[in-house]
Amino acid sequence: VQVVESGGGLAQPGGSLRLSCAASGFTFGSYAMGWFRQAPGKEREFVAAINWSGGSTSYADSVKGRFTISKDNAKNTLYLQMNSLKPEDTALYYCAKGRKWGGSTSTGDDYNYWGQGTQVTVSS
Length: 124
Description:
Blueprint: E1 2-6, E2 9-11, E3 17-24, E4 31-38, E5 45-50, E6 57-59, E7 67-72, E8 77-82, E9 91-100, E10 113-114, E11 118-122
Parallel strand pairs: 2-11
Antiparallel strand pairs: 1-3, 3-8, 4-5, 4-9, 5-6, 7-8, 9-10, 9-11
């Protein structure tokens, strides 16, 4: 099992970035997936999740209305579209594999494989 994030970088406040997570080694279309982030000196926090079919999503209040999670089961890829970025969105963003036939849970314990992360920095 492997999940590999990409797409991070430097963005200006108000700008956009799209993160991708390439998954392999499991039947991607059968699993819930999630995005988490960790800023320096802070604990890891939930960002967004999507259920196994892609039909249900959930978001942290801090990103609701600005971020959109999606999954392309044909490409085995998870996405996080981030718009209206704020300096407080600066963090290392992790993709995580959830449960088979799972829902869009925000609980970290429901995820059992994590990527290495991709850095997002929002600064002018």
